[in-house]
Amino acid sequence: MVIITLLLGLGVWQVQSNQDLFLNHSLEENSDSTQNSLPQLDSKEVITQYYQLATSNRTAALELLSDEYKNQYRQNSQRDSAKSFWNTINKVEIYAFLTLSNSENKYQIKVWLKYFRVDGYIACESQVIESVKDSHKNRWLINNISNIKQKPNCTQ
User: Fold this and answer.
1) Where would a tag sit more exposed on the chain, N or C end, judged by fewer CB atoms within 10 A?
2) pLDDT per residue over 109-135, tens digit each?
3) For 122, phi and psi rounded to 5 degrees?
4) Is there a domain that residue 156 lies in?
């Protein structure tokens, strides 16, 4: 359980949300003009998009992380284990959000997630995600994931 919790804190997820917010936009294009043409996403939308992209396009999902958080991920010796873990996940569904705190440049949001594994098992957890407004890129980015708690069932 501790290893899974550690991996979940390090990793990247895919979410199949009931909202298909970003069907017409791709994060694989990295030019400044592309970034300017993307819609301004609020903090919850960035979290949702992150989970939608993560298992199918980890590179694009990583672009939704702050440089500080990406550096933590890259420096962690468990990185290969996290990648192996995510290969066992078909999708992740966000089933609830709760804003814990917000300011002009930082949000803390509690998120409840349902993981659908390739073996058919469904696991649930909650976590607190901190997002920050990147003034250079003028967009919200995920800066930290903490307080990960595995749940016996998928209720808040």
Assistant:
1) N
2) 999 999 999 999 999 999 999 999 998
3) -115, 125
4) no
